[in-house]
Amino acid sequence: MAQHDAPAKAAWNFAAGPARLPDAVLARAGAALFERGADGAAAIERPFTGAGFREVLADARQRLAALLGVPDHYRVLFLAGGAMHQFSMLPMNLLDPASGLRRVAYADSGYWSRRAMQEAARYAEVAVVARHAGALPLTAPPLDDWQVPPDCAYCHITANETVDGIAYPAWPNTGAVPLVADATSCFLSAPLDVSKFGLIYASAQKNIGPSGLTVVIVREDLLRRPALAAPSALCYRLQAAQDSCLNTPPTLAIHLAALVFDWISESGGLVAMASANRRKADLLYSAIDSSQGFYTAPVAHGHRSTTNVRFHLADERLTEVFLTDAAAAGLHHLRGHRQVGGLRASLYNAMPDAGVAALVDFMAEFARGHG
Amino acid sequence: MAQHDAPAKAAWNFAAGPARLPDAVLARAGAALFERGADGAAAIERPFTGAGFREVLADARQRLAALLGVPDHYRVLFLAGGAMHQFSMLPMNLLDPASGLRRVAYADSGYWSRRAMQEAARYAEVAVVARHAGALPLTAPPLDDWQVPPDCAYCHITANETVDGIAYPAWPNTGAVPLVADATSCFLSAPLDVSKFGLIYASAQKNIGPSGLTVVIVREDLLRRPALAAPSALCYRLQAAQDSCLNTPPTLAIHLAALVFDWISESGGLVAMASANRRKADLLYSAIDSSQGFYTAPVAHGHRSTTNVRFHLADERLTEVFLTDAAAAGLHHLRGHRQVGGLRASLYNAMPDAGVAALVDFMAEFARGHG
């Protein structure tokens, strides 16, 4: 076979988000979104007030609720924007000075939790109730002994630190103060006990689909807070009262999310996702740990993210060579976040075993060539 | 030919938004967004920090600036959310009490301008500087004699009232106070002299593409206002400093917008859009005006929207019959907004002459059957 007829080499996208979508979703998406139906409209062209879109929205909500087992006293919202919008919405919606809820509590587990608390600090005093040590190996903040002041409107954790590669091994006890989680980069990667949280949010560009959409799951009692300062479009209560349609929602992104929820259901649900994600992460972390120090993982066992696997070359000067050679081998977007450097492979639900196997094979070969 | 082999009858979608996209964009979108490239990623899967997306963003910005002739001292932003987000962002970003800008000015031209001013009133005192009469035939607020108080941070108009079907025939003179326009439903329907405005915003689901994205064109001097109250993701200055990428932008929607901008350019630009839109609107308004009172248009000549054509049946009891029969004839989403009733045909750039011709033919036939 002539070289120009060679089959295209497999290429793998390890980006942290927007990130790889399931093959089956990509295969369906064009027709599902862009082919016109009997009403002369494709999904992207349908009015958000009509039955066509409202059925998609209801299906997305019901399917997500079924996947997670969302209790009846929670509401599922599909909102425009990303997690950064939630960073402001949390204090704006949940503070309630008239009821004595004047402060907010945050745990510092890494880059994104600090970004979240910096934004919250613009609206209220922040009580930092736990910190990760910062020394190697990295861990999530210790879970014992959280003293959450009772005048805090909520206590915020970042369930999985996308940049740092740190995940909580379990959830803290915050007593009467509602626990709020940024679950962006671990959402739908495994079962999650929603009942432990007052509010969970996740921007969509990891395990849900496109950017520009954020899922919020909020306990109904929190919707009774006054939200005096929140812009209407950013008010949980108003959006919940209108089923996320106070204003035109991102209909295309919600439609894509529904396709992803379908795929997760068809693939065995969150138990199957968790099993596959554990297997993929174990394969990659084992390759790192068994490299005799050529590669190192900065995060301690038990605190390692299954979705965002961080590692470094012992000789950091090889990092650029690694990235160049990896790209040439069809392994893309492996550069670590600029704040922490090194390398990162994001292994969301849509990354198949074959992608991780290709990375592990390359890493072994690279180590042999440069060890 | 057996009946079940008959070619599908043409169907037309007259929804006010999300709305019809150009055929050529729909035809390209699936491959452009969902087919993977050499880096193993489809456009929807690419990181927003990488060269792939940044080229799409720069192309979208440059092409839009070229279409409109945006002057150099303006910035073009692509932000998550809809016009409702802008309703809050305007006062949050542009008020500057320390510089004496304590109030905001609004003109009341109909439904959406009132929604905009209601939201602004949560943040500052609103000076209503002009009102439409409210009596038939409807007009935009009169343009002479606008007394805009100098302590107003801006003066807001709704350039085209999507619900009421009213469009300004020209722009008011607001003196030293920056004129701000909600151009959502007329944006890119015709040339626009950006230099007359301090800020123009348009949510995308009319002439740009998908919902969940809003274009903002803002004069650079307005970015120097303090924006103390704005959530970071909703801060014009911060988003401008990061080229709309302070946080993950709606990459899929921006990519689609770029495809639409390409299509407008290839189709002759905004002069050609204006010519086609004038032709389509004239065809429909002529059918209404020549119906001997069977159909009536509530908006006065010179103030009629070319993009959102409102009309009523003289016998309002026929409205439901009209909608049912129209749908059976392949003419969809013609119901007027619930606040005003009647009928509405939205004729955005992507609606071809053939769609309007089909509607006009149906209207004549319906009038013959029920006159």
UniProtKB/TrEMBL annotation, chains A, B:
GO biological process terms held by the UniProt record: L-serine biosynthetic process; pyridoxine biosynthetic process
Report which reactions are catalysed by this protein: O-phospho-L-serine + 2-oxoglutarate = 3-phosphooxypyruvate + L-glutamate; 4-(phosphooxy)-L-threonine + 2-oxoglutarate = (R)-3-hydroxy-2-oxo-4-phosphooxybutanoate + L-glutamate
Cofactor requirements of the protein: pyridoxal 5'-phosphate
The compartments listed are: Cytoplasm
* The Aminotransferase class V domain, residue ranges: 12-359
Q: Which Pfam families does the record match to this protein?
A: Aminotran_5
Question: Which keywords describe this protein according to UniProt?
Answer: Amino-acid biosynthesis, Aminotransferase, Cytoplasm, Pyridoxal phosphate, Pyridoxine biosynthesis, Serine biosynthesis, Transferase
Pathway(s) where this gene product acts = Cofactor biosynthesis; pyridoxine 5'-phosphate biosynthesis; pyridoxine 5'-phosphate from D-erythrose 4-phosphate: step 3/5; Amino-acid biosynthesis; L-serine biosynthesis; L-serine from 3-phospho-D-glycerate: step 2/3
Its Enzyme Commission number?
A: 2.6.1.52
| Cofactor, how bound (note) | Binds 1 pyridoxal phosphate per subunit.
Q: Which Gene3D superfamilies match?
A: Aspartate Aminotransferase, domain 1, Type I PLP-dependent aspartate aminotransferase-like (Major domain)
GO molecular function ontology, one term from the record: O-phospho-L-serine:2-oxoglutarate aminotransferase activity
Q: What class of enzyme is it?
A: transferase
Q: Which residues carry this modification: N6-(pyridoxal phosphate)lysine?
A: 206
InterPro entries linked: Aminotrans_V_dom, Aminotrans_V_PyrdxlP_BS, Pser_aminoTfrase, PyrdxlP-dep_Trfase, PyrdxlP-dep_Trfase_major, PyrdxlP-dep_Trfase_small
Domain of life, per the record? Bacteria
Binding-site residues for pyridoxal 5'-phosphate, renumbered to this chain: 112, 162, 182, 205, 247-248
List the GO cellular component terms: cytoplasm
Q: How does it assemble?
A: Homodimer.
Matching entries from NCBIfam families are given as: PRK05355.1
Describe its function. Answer: Catalyzes the reversible conversion of 3-phosphohydroxypyruvate to phosphoserine and of 3-hydroxy-2-oxo-4-phosphonooxybutanoate to phosphohydroxythreonine.
Q: Which family does it belong to?
A: Belongs to the class-V pyridoxal-phosphate-dependent aminotransferase family. SerC subfamily.
UniProt name for this protein: Phosphoserine aminotransferase
Source organism per entry reads Simplicispira hankyongi
The record's gene field reads serC
